[in-house]
Amino acid sequence: MSDDRAHSTDTARAFTATVPGVARIGAGRELKRAVEAYWAGRIDAHALDQVATGIKRDSWNQLVQAGFDAVPVNTFSYYDQVLDTAVMLGALPPRTASVADPLDRYFAAARGTADIAPLEMTKWFDTNYHYLVPEIGPDTVFALDATKVLDEIGQARAQGVPARPVVIGPITFLALSKAVDGAAEPLSRIDDLLPLYVDLLGRLTQAGAEWVQIDEPTLVTDQASDLAALAERVYTALSAAPARPRILVQTYFGDAADRLGALARTDVEAVGVDLVAGSADSVRAAGLTGKHVVAGVVDGRNIWRTDLDRALETLRSLAPHVGSLAVSTSCSTLHVPYTVRGESELDAALASWLAFAEEKFAEVAALSRALIHGRDDQAGQFDAARAALATRATDPRLHVSAVRDRLAGLSPADWTRTPADVRRQAQDAALNLPVLPTTTIGSYPQTVEIRKARSALRNGTLDAEGYRCRMEREIAEVIALQEKVGLDVLVHGEPERNDMVQYFAEQLDGFFATANGWVQSYGSRCVRPPVLFGDVSRRAPMTVGWITYAQSLTNRPVKGMLTGPVTILAWSFVRDDQPIADTANQVGLAIRDETVDLERAGVPIIQVDEPALRELLPLRDTDRAAYLDWAVRSFRLATGGIADQTQIHTHLCYSEFGEVIGAIAGLDADVTSIEAARSHMEVLDDLNSAGFAAQVGPGVYDIHSPRIPSADEITESLREALGAVPADRLWVNPDCGLKTRRTDEVTAALKHMVAAAHRARAEVAQPVG
What we know:
seven-stranded parallel sheet, single chain, disordered N terminus, 27 helices, alpha/beta, five-stranded parallel sheet, globular
């Protein structure tokens, strides 16, 4: 071992308090507004850079002021950290090369242009964040471009920040990539990447970095075979680099298990572990006595206050089994809002139970100081945490007898509908739809007028009756647009909904909505997840009035639009004091009440969306069966109370569906619409291989890109779909809701979609040859 690397057991310069990463949208969503202004041509690249610089500066200063002695840098991104890594490694798709400006080329890969298809998008492990999937072809030539990370190190060091650059590791980057054009599995290219990472380590050393964090969350998954051996080989090679910073291999979202032992056998100096989703036993058994362990004992993904007493005991139990300890969050705080400050509408008890990012930074600092100086040094923090936990445990809103008694009284019939073929006959007779029926997923553009009305209602300048009238006007316009375009099954457009989960949460007991709890979902898309804190029940009908008004305007069927229980859980911050299956069934019963009321009101089709079904899938195979069981049961509970002639739709998007095909079939929906545009109908092969026999609507165009597909392009997509699914089972629809698009974009794209459907119907009626 060279002198440069003789510090693997030297803890004198090891840090004590940190986080793996932080949010980058800005506390007031400054980045969202700036990026969208750049896309619209209202600001230039320099102005966009000024906003980014301010967000990074404020974030780094906050961590320094919290008392952290190592601050992650290079966690900022204009769109997505995986896309940033593709740029760093020279792995953007060749089709973007025609865009001369590097920033515009970056956004072309993310969003597409009129002529360039964007990268596929899917979920980041089991979170509600979406990343862009790199494409690795047989001709992909990797080349290092370290400009971004080196610039951020320079900016941070100029501010006196103890900067620790963060990069996604080679294993995770390739495991999350997609082979294209007949290429081998991306992980087979690992040896092509290692020299680039060695080069990067040298450049980071020259830039003054003492530590580098290499993120390898794939090591907590079953995403590839022999991950322990691969991790040992890769990090033996990287830790042998002739000039490098100290290396922290950071894992999160689960238990790295035997992969920790593999890392222990290399010369990396530190390992980061998630002790919320993972196990302290794995750390104790891993042989890490020569390593600095960054212990993620504060939950980076949920918003509940940490039990500081229990966290400190976990840290103390690890101390004899590791070289040294730092305290951290379990993962980046990208997944939680910025601060509880400003949430003035919460009662004192609720507010005391919460810890957003700013509060988590304080918890990390308190635990670090208590570990070093003793619990009494942080007595006030520990006493406050203990008191908050006590009030939460005894709050009556968490244990409502009426809800629990109703669940206990359910029978197997409540989860069961009649056979699908019997239902199909009843629905065909009731609906009388053409072959290849056209529809949309649910939402239509949220116009400036809609947002102004919602704001006016919120600030009291518009009363409830005035708001209802404005929303009905929007609904009437959307119905008229759909009839003019020629769609077969209509939707009301959801103008009254701020968000597909928050809208329902605000009308259900057991939830509260934050005022400023924004988190990033992808790119400039931000969401405000509600908090599910207590037992859930429906107070009154939530959608019936809007849907029946829409149906009164047309003779064509209008779908009732609901969000399913799994997605409501996935896109909320969920209570952690009872089994999640119990919580899912409570939400399922509330949605069931709504489906029954919609049917009673004469609504012929009810769509219960579950776009997050794949999202919550556990990262380890051994845990998946139990999850899929309760997920499917909660959906069937929500939809099990209606008659045969009422058609149940569901919608899923942006996931690797092959892993949940059996569960999709188990939902027993009559029609399943599913993202297929960016993945070029690949999902249909998965469905067929699983024997899926229900009706399906694979998305024929990508609504997350501003490009408008031609009728010819959509016709070709339909031909691909018809090659896998017979016409009597195929629906025609976009791949997701239209909320984020402009009305002119929507109108043009839907006209092309309807024209393509008519062409395909003619081809089905008179097949060539």
